[in-house]
Amino acid sequence: MYGTYLRLDVTVHDSWRAVIRAAARKLAPHARRDPAQREARRRFYRQMLEYHSNAQHLVRVWRL
């Protein structure tokens, strides 16, 4: 899944909303609308946000 985060084309300085928007664009249209896959979407978005948060933490620690 980390590879998917890297393909979102977001920078570390982007907001969490930009990450969610980019992640939503990676999903197929029917997957975005299917109520049966709601929990899977949430897990996907949360994982992308976790990777983004980790990347931001690295930048703050190493002052990149």
Give the SSE layout.
Layout: H1 2-6, H2 16-26, H3 29-33, H4 38-62
The structural domain count equals: 1
Class from secondary-structure proportions = mainly alpha
Q: What's the shape? A: elongated
Give the low-pLDDT segments.
Answer: none
The residue-averaged pLDDT reads 96
The number of helical elements comes to: 4
Give the C-alpha Rg.
13 Å
Structure description:
The protein has 64 residues and is mostly helical. The protein has one domain. Helices cover 72% and strands 0% of the residues. The chain has helices spanning 2-6, 16-26, 29-33, 38-62. α2 (16-26) crosses α4 (38-62). The longest helix has 25 residues, at 38-62. The chain starts with a helix and ends with a helix. The relative contact order is 0.19.
